[in-house]
Structures are given as structure tokens and as C-alpha cells.
Amino acid sequence: MQRTRQTWLLPLLIIVLHALQADAQTPVDSLKPNYINPTQYEVGGIDFVGLKRHKKDVLLSIIGLRVGDKVEVPSEKLADIIDYLWKQNLFSDIKLNVDSIVEGKIYLAFQVEEIAYQAGPVKLNGISRAEANKLSTKLKPYATGTISQQHILSITTLITNYYKDKGYYNVFVSTRQLPAKVDTNMVQLVADITTGPRVKINSIDIVGNRAVADTKLRRVMKDTKERRWFNIFKTSKYNAEAYTKDKQRIIDYYNQLGHRDAEVVKDSVYLFSPKRLNISITIDEHKVYYYGNITWVGNTKYSTDTLNRVLGIKPGEVYDKSKLNEALYMNAAGNDITSLYMDNGYLFFNVTPVETGLNGDSINLEMHIYEGKPATIGGISIKGNTRTQDHVILREVYTKPGQLFKRSDIILSQQALIRLGYFNPEALQVNPIPNPANGTVDIEYVVEEKPTDQIQLSGGIAAGKIVGTLSLVMNNFSFKSIGKKDRWQPLLLAMGSE
Q1: CATH numbers and ranges of domains, the chain
Q2: pLDDT tens column, 54-103
Q3: Distance CA 339, CA 264 (A)
Q4: Which residues make beta-bridge pairs with 190?
């Protein structure tokens, strides 16, 4: 806790007066502090009492006071030194004592109490090991440092918010300090956690909606549901992350209806009872917009009529930005503007829609196109295959060196590699590596092989005899690998069907 200079000057003067009385046996009345003409002394010695972890030499080097310096009592200089020491956040208590005054020399001693220092990660009690591991990762920035009230508050707030995000609104966190080492100020900080019951959603109140009914908006929220008897397939447990996504789903739905500027202007989550909470959402729908004139700039490969036909959006339709993005970039069937160009080699193509103005409730769009030059395929590389030879993969893909780049060939190649059954479909990647300088693109296929071979052992008793069978199923086998020692680990590492 910081103290004002005036708070420190008065105790200092009292201490000095007592020292003077003991040294010179002069009546105290005659040694009253003179603020107009302070008494000057030579510093005869400076000591720090109570240090356990910090070094006296280091502290002496930073306070700006040396033996032999002249110092006035009272003085702003001594008050500044004490203020400076407080600001270092090293001590929980500081007192300045005068040990003695001998022949005009004053001997000062700083009596300090060091702030405890955390000796490693926070120990978490009351929760599972899995949860403790997750929390420990988040608490890494607080594994060391002085144990100040702010330090403890930051830790308890992080833990509390972590569980609130999971729906535990009754979480309670208390901290305690255990000595870590003898004769040091190092401590082990322990956090005792009581999560309490996980709360469920009692009600979701929506305000401000006129174009869309409450029930429809609640259905749009996929993972945030009220507690109702008929919600047998959806949990009503509250999850902050899911709630944030569901608020965005509401806005996305409004955008599809032409409410381009719709927004959640206010929302609150509050406890209704120890095990139930309510959610209140206030929406500003704003007005509905429509598509106005759509023009194209920079297109030389395809005519405006062709581009308009592929775009599939006509003036007067409700303005839906998700539909616009799908028509420009990511139609699942490949019937979009980007696919049109990229299936004809225009790898460096891009299109940017620009809103050029409003005509009442209609939005005019100008499509800025950069076509670039058609690209041909350069090299093709494979990464991640240890069992399957490159040529087995290369014969399946539709991309060949020297051919015109086509995005549709990339998609067909992915599907062909998945059909092989050798690779993990979720880990399969195709990375085009453009070389704009020479107009080529290298294609990199990244695969993750999955085990396909099986060893089956079965047994039984028949006619008093033990009968057993052993079968080996190898789905990815190569006769060419039989004579290669490095392919047996311990069974033959196949190289794909020959």
C-alpha cells in the first residue's frame, strides 16, 4: 500500500528526535523540527533489516543515497526514497529507523517485510485432473511473481470465468499460501475450487424483433436452448462459447432476410435461481435492403451476360450477403464465379464486390475482377507417405505437370485418394504453391496414412483337440518390397498395389 510523503516524514522526525535525545541528552523541546531551516547530517551508514530474498547491495544501488551524502531532516529526499521503494512492489511494509546519530553523522535502517513470491504453478484442488491440466495451461502467466492482492485477484477471476463459460455460475474459489522453503519468502499458492451445480437455461427472452418471431429465433440458436420437456435431443446447459456463436447465427439469419445492418444491441445472462439462469437479448433489426444494379469491371475472358448468368442474382432480390459470397466464391456444386475462372487456369483470379451506393433501399454493386494469366502445373510432390509409394499416389491424381490448372481436378484428386482407403480423409490436404513469376503452380499433396493390415487369431476345441487359425490381411501389399529389409517393421511395409 502506498503512503504519502507527509505520512512518512512525521514518524521519521519523531525517530530522529529520540535518537538526538539519546545521543546528546538535549531536551526534546529544543529539537523540534524546523521546516524552514532543516537540520543537515552526513549519512554514516545505511542498512536494510528483514531481507530474505532480495540483496542489500542491489537495494542500496537503486535508492540513490550513499554513505557520505548530505541529507536534511526533514527532507523530500527521504520521502522520495520511501515512495520509490513502495513502487518496486517488493515489500508489504517499510519503516525508516534512525539507529544513531554520532558527531553529526546519521545512521539509517530500513525495516522491511518482503512480499511473498510464488514458487511455481498454482496448485488446484477440488477439480478433476483433466480440468486441472486445462486450467494450469491458462494459469501459466501466473506461475511466478509476487503474491500481491492483484495477483490473487487475477487468478481467482480467471478460474471463475473459466467455469462460468462452462455454465457453473456458483463457482467459489479461495486461495491460501503454503511455505515453499525454510528461511525464504517463497510460497506455494493453492486454489481451492468448488464448482457447484452446472446451471441450466430457464428462459430466453428476445426483445425488439418484429420481422421474425421469438420461436423462430430460438430455433436458429442451435446450442442455446430453454429448459423444456420436449427438448429431448438438445441440452439446456449454458455454455458461453456456444451462446456467442448462437448470437451470431441470429444475425446471419437476419442478413439472409435482407436485414443487412441487424445487430444485437444488448444482452444479459443472469441467475434466476441457484440452478437456473435467464437470457435476455435485445435486437435492432433495421430495415430490409434489396440488390440494385450489378456491374462488372475488369472482365475480358467472360462477358457481362455470362458472369450475370453464373452469379444468379437479379436486381430487386432481397439482399443476402451469404448468397452473394456463395455465388462468387464457394458454391458447393462449383457453379460460382471463382470456379468458372479457376477451371480454366486462372489461379491468380480474384473478385471483390464493392457497394457503390444506395438507391432508397437498393444497394448497387460493382464487381472488381482481376483475371491474371492462366497458370500451368509445374511440379507435384507428396508428403506424409511412409508405406505407399509416390507413383501409386501420382497415378490416382488428375493433376499432371504441364497441364492447365483446374480447381475441379484438385477436387477429383482428393476424392480419388480418399477412395484408395490408405489415408485419413480428415488429414488429407492439397496445397497449390503459385509461382507468379513464371506463371506455374506446384501442387503438394499432404497425406496421413492409416493402418489397413490386420492379424486375426482364433481358436477352439474340436474332437478333443485344440484347433487354431491365424490369418493375415494386408490391404496395401507390394511384392517389390519383399527383398528390402528396411520395409519389414516388423511386418512388410507395403508400397501400394503394384
Answers
A1: 5-114 (3.10.20.310), 117-194 (3.10.20.310), 200-284 (3.10.20.310), 290-370 (3.10.20.310), 376-446 (3.10.20.310), 454-487 (no CATH)
A2: 889 999 998 989 999 999 877 888 889 999 998 887 888 899 888 888 88
A3: 35
A4: 123, 176
When mean pLDDT is compared across 206-210, 233-237, 260-264, 355-359, the lowest value belongs to 233-237
pTM: 0.61
Task: Give the whole-number percent of the chain exceeding pLDDT 70.
Answer: 81
For residues 41 and 103, is the Cβ–Cβ distance under 8 A? no
d(CA 168, CA 390): 52
Q: In whole numbers, what is the pLDDT of the chain averaged over residues?
A: 83
Cα distance between residue 122 and residue 182, in whole Å: 19
